[in-house]
Amino acid sequence: MIEKIVHHPEKVTLEEIAWILANDELNEQLFAVADEVRRKYLGKEVYLRGIIEFSNYCRNDCLYCGIRSSNKNVKRYRMSVEEIVERARLIAQMGIKTVVLQSGEDPYYTREMIGEMVTRIKKFNVAITLSVGEREFDEYAYWKELGADRYLMRHETADEELYRKLHPNDSFENRKAHLLKLKQLGYETGAGSMVGLPGQDDFSLAKDVLFVYQLDADMVGIGPFIPHPDTPLAECKAGELTKTLKLIALTRLFLPDANIPATTALGTIHPFGRQLALKCGANVIMPNFTPSPYRAQYALYPNKICIFENDVACGECTKNLVRSVGYEVSEDFGYRRKAHERT
Length: 343
Ligand code: SAM
Ligand code: FES
Known about the structure:
This protein has 343 residues and is an alpha/beta fold. The chain has helices at 2-7, 14-22, 27-42, 81-93, 111-122, 137-146, 160-166, 172-184, 202-215, 241-254, 264-269, 273-279, 294-297, 313-324, and strands at residues 45-48, 50-55, 98-103, 127-131, 150-152, 188-195, 219-224, 284-285, 328-329. The longest helix has 16 residues, at 27-42.
């Protein structure tokens, strides 16, 4: 079955993926082959992406998210364009070649403000990834023209019914239209999903795998769902480590050359979550460069790692983490290197 995915992914059915997800006897083989594929296409290199979470204001009310608009216990913050550009300079100075600008969906930042960030940060000779949620299509086009390289917008879940339940006023179809638009505009486009959402079964997760394959996503962020106490999902169970690693490994088999991060959420549910992910197909890590005191306030879920005083420590820490599991820190921009032929 694993061989079939490697050589003929187009023939694999939803049922077959769900079967692998439901049964654990192939896990060791799955993880080993995912690592093999990753080494074949991407070598031992890991790309670092420095992330700045510049605003925790959000107009959305996603049921799982700690910064949802109806959570009144959040201390809200917005960084100024100046502050953001200075943080990006610091990332570039540390030799990290990608700056990720992430926020809640916050219309306070106009197309011109984000455009100014892109223009100024581009001068530091870095790739820029935007992750500011759903915006107007002409805004995406404008930022792309100014030099933005990539856009992260997880599809969250490819189960349409579940998507509707979790996102008041949004639909999976709409999210998909945004992702297709981003691809069409020439962004390296990142989708991805949470594992262990309430009501999600192995078929839903199999749909996530097939969705990113069919989209030909350039990046896929996969992390466990972690219940936040101030949300309607407070009492739900968190996603599991092994299931999340399986999703990452399967995604690597379907998209051998995609950039797949070892996510912070995985590092939050298990002390070696990110290290394990790097061994199961992930090839990217995202050190946090959000300055304090804001960092702790960008609480999408509880107990998020890296909340401490020294707010640039994650740069060195992630480099050490990568080396500790036998991989190398890349000094490259880390664009997707498309493998045109599969063997
Ligand atoms: N607003 C932008 C967007 O929606 O694309 C970017 C920020 S959004 C908060 C970043 C990601 O956090 C989401 O795509 C979601 O997958 C993840 N997230 C939110 N709440 C979470 C939770 N409780 N557990 C795990 N991941 C969560
Ligand atoms: Fe933040 Fe290790 S990555 S402290």
